[in-house]
User: Which sequence fits this backbone?
């Protein structure tokens, strides 16, 4: 397993090799899993380790998870950003309650898949860009206030402090 970088994601990506299909595939990297580690993605697991991907019914309540899929054979939709993790709060025979990083609680079928652990690149939110040009290189364009524009450009434009009330464009 090697670590890759994708400019469109905030977490690192791991390049994994499937021993059954004899092919490579990519997953978002997990924080404490390093190159050369063995990981498993299966519905039936004998033991649970950080980095393994399995169904929610095989993971005990209280575990830290990421890369959560909503249905059985769908791709992951939740808990994919850098440094994020969710927690299984409650398990039933047919559904599980998962606490998302936004503190929302989601009811999910126990046949859906999740990875055990925290998504890599924990220090992503601590990066200081330093200047506006660095953000431009990353694809973010500048934001100009409506009051600083001319009347033809924005409903808030063309006045100093009086005149028209604020409206949403």
Assistant:
């Amino acid at each position: 397993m090697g670590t890759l970088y994708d400019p469109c994601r905030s977490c690192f990506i791991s390049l994994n090799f499937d021993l059954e299909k004899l092919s490579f595939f990519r997953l978002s990297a997990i924080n404490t899993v390093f190159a050369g580690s063995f990981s498993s993605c299966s519905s039936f697991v004998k033991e649970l380790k950080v980095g393994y991907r399995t169904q929610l019914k095989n993971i005990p309540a209280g575990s830290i998870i990421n890369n959560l899929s909503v249905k059985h054979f769908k791709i992951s939709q939740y808990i994919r950003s850098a440094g994020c993790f969710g927690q299984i709060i409650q398990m039933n025979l047919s559904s599980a309650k998962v606490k998302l990083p936004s503190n929302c609680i989601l009811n999910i079928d126990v046949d859906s898949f999740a990875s055990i652990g925290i998504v890599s690149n924990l220090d992503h939110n601590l990066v200081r860009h330093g200047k506006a040009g660095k953000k431009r290189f990353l694809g973010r364009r500048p934001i100009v206030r409506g009051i600083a524009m001319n009347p033809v450009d924005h409903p808030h434009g063309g006045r100093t402090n009086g005149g028209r009330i604020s409206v949403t464009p």
Remarks:
- The first helix runs from residue 132 to 137.
- The radius of gyration is 22 Å.
- Helices lie at 132-137.
- Residues 60 and 88 are 8 Å apart (CA to CA).
